[in-house]
Amino acid sequence: MTVEIRRVVTGVNADGKAVVIQDGLAPKTNSRPAISVEGAVIWITDETPADLSKYNDPTLRDEIGVAPHAGGSLIRVVDFLPPTGEIDNDVFLKEMGLSKEHGGAHAFMHRTKSIDYAIILQGEIDMLLDEGEVHLKAGDILVQRGTNHAWVNRGDKPCRIAFVLIDAKDFPPPNGKPFPQPG
Known about the structure:
By secondary structure, the protein is mainly beta. The longest helix has 8 residues, at 89-96. The chain has a 6-stranded antiparallel sheet with strand order 3-4-5-11-6-9, with no helix packed on it. A 3-stranded antiparallel sheet has the order 8-7-10, with no helix packed on it. It has a two-stranded antiparallel sheet with strand order 1-2. It has one domain (28-176): Jelly Rolls, CATH 2.60.120.10. The protein has one helix at residues 89-96; strands at residues 6-12, 18-25, 28-32, 37-45, 73-80, 114-122, 124-129, 133-137, 141-145, 149-152, 159-167. 4% of the residues lie in helices and 41% in strands. It contains 1 helix and 11 strands.
């Protein structure tokens, strides 16, 4: 099973008129049963401001990481499925393409150098932090500011979240030690 999300992309035709240039299912999806996650990449930009004259579909590239490229952004929709068992941190990091420098109290702990807008579309989920956690449900919006965190579905139904990630400048390092970054 993979996430099926209708994606409509607009553009401008040769006469300068606004038109729909793509309308269909998001072409870049993935299923990661080892970590009970499925997702669809909706769009990517590689620079800010974005170049609106580009018509190639940026989601069709081979490599799409968790975080956006430097100066870029991305939007994806992720389904967090109910848990099917224990997941090892090494398995999670490998599936997500993250470095071993990430970690914490939960196997899913990670961070990216980005500001993330997480819009809970359906279901419920817990976001764990180094200290504390927050329970989120459909309709909630979380602003995740480059902090170490983990998403954990403790329920029996999938939780669907739309994530908009925008590259960001990192926090000043605590005690002069740099934060770990994705590998």
